[in-house]
Amino acid sequence: MVCEILSLNFNKITAQKKIPKKLAVQEQVDPSELKDKIIESHIDIVSVCNLSCPTCVQGNMDSISGGVMSLDLFKKIITKLKSDFPDLKDIFLYNWTEPLLHNKLPEFVEIVNKADFRSHLSANLNHIKNLEDVIKNNPYAIRISLSGFTQEVYQKGHRDGNIETVKQNMKTLSNLIKKYHASTKVTVNYIKYQHNLFEIPAMKKFALDLGFNIQTFWACLMGVETTLQYLHTPEKIEKSMHDLVPQLGREPRELLNLLKSYNKRSCSLLEHQLVLNANGEVQQCCASLTPPFPFNSKDTYLDLTPEQISSRRHNAEICKTCMDEGINVMIGSKWDDDELVLHSKIKNKLYKIREKVRSFKKFVR
Ligand SMILES: C[S@@+](CC[C@H](N)C(=O)[O-])C[C@H]1O[C@@H](n2cnc3c(N)ncnc32)[C@H](O)[C@@H]1O
Ligand code: SF4
Ligand code: SF4
Questions:
Q1: What is the number of the ligand closest to the CA of 288?
Q2: What is the pLDDT of residues 250-271, one digit of tens each?
Q3: pLDDT 10s digits, 165-209
Q4: Domain at 15-334: CATH architecture
Q5: What is the rounded CA–CA span in Å between residue 72 and residue 76?
Q6: Distance CA 293, CA 268 (A)
Q7: DSSP assignment of 234-298
Q8: Rounded CA gap, 241 and 130, in Å?
Q9: What is the H or E stretch that residue 189 is in?
Q10: Do the Cβ atoms of 119 and 140 come closer than 8 Å?
């Protein structure tokens, strides 16, 4: 299966339109057997970004499919989500794009809040045209993604961005939150590379002084397809991404090796997440660019039942490949410098397995 994907002549990360029909999937699973519990939805409301970070698909593709989502389409999507998925709580108005580029972002936030979902944004914060109106509408949470405190360091991970502009915009955001008494939780996502570790303390102080939280995590080569390319046809990935590999916390192959003993045959993204692009088309998960639908399909989320979506996603070839390689475990795990800290869900599963083994051993004795 891996060979099937990797034998394709990728020049860049797999763009949806370039995927051949043989990756299309059939509806084989009995919907009544599916137990998906969708709790979060990621919706790209634009298909572009103002930056081109080397480890992001935006930095490695000509374009991401989808245009600019209309408010009308978004309202219909939210109404359907509400009725399809009773456990859905969180709407993330981004996946591979910059939400602040949509000039109607304040209305999007308002619609999400009125539907009683929690509205989440994540932004590079180089562009804040509508920020005041966004904050007036009190989004539930905003993440600010960055990778350094000085321009020399920041630009390595955030190509085309300007950290001084970001810092200025962070101050503006802090002031707006105070001005409108917004309850929005702001967290700085400090994306770690070996080259930017020494600037964490300066950014931490800056963020905390503004009343924001800060979390740090290692950069990865974003996108399941990117990781597959890196593993099997490294010569096909962009040079700028290649250059950043030695700056990662661990080399991806080494990390996959460390994780290989963990269960690979389930994926929380598959079971708990629904991702839509700016056209309203269903994506496989937040980490994959391969659509779970046949290519000639013009179906959007609005045309599909939850069972159809679930069935198609669970049969998608990309998941089998991803699980074979253990990429799903890598994506679903949090780890730091010396130890791998697995997500609580995986940890719980392992704990249960160990308990079973222990009681079986006791029983045998
Ligand atoms: C692709 S970004 C899209 C949203 C927005 N443009 C931004 O950068 O925050 C989605 C999430 O990926 C995270 N991210 C960005 N680069 C990353 C990397 N190299 N490795 C892991 N996560 C990354 C960001 O912090 C963000 O929350
Ligand atoms: S990580 Fe965010 S800011 Fe960077 S290119 Fe991707 S979408 Fe844009
Ligand atoms: S198995 Fe991989 S491709 Fe499939 S949903 Fe999980 S992370 Fe995405």
A1: 3
A2: 999 999 988 887 767 889 999 9
A3: 999 999 999 999 999 999 999 999 999 999 999 999 999 999 999
A4: Alpha-Beta Barrel (3.20)
A5: 6
A6: 20
A7: GGGS-HHHHHHGGGSSS-HHHHHHHTTTS--S--HHHHHEEEE-TTSPEESBTTB-S-SS-TT--
A8: 31
A9: strand 185-192
A10: yes
Which ligand number lies closest to the CA of residue 122?
A: 1
Q: Ligand 2 centroid vs 51 CA: distance in angstroms?
A: 6
In the reported structure, the alpha carbon of residue 34 is separated from the centroid of ligand 2 by a whole-number distance in angstroms of: 33
C-alpha 263 to ligand 2 mean position (Å): 30
Is there a contact between 327 and 256 (Cβ–Cβ < 8 Å)?
yes
CA–CA separation, 138 and 206 (whole Å): 23
Ligand 1 within 6 A of 288 CB?
Answer: no
Which residue has a Cα nearest atom 1 of ligand 1? Answer: 96
The residue whose CA has the least distance to atom 6 of ligand 2 is 56
Give the closest residue (by CA) to ligand 2 atom 7.
Answer: 97
Residue 108: strand, helix, or coil: helix
Q: What is the pLDDT of residue 4?
A: 23
- Cα 303 to Cα 30, 34, 146, 362, 363: the distances in Å are 19, 19, 37, 54, 53
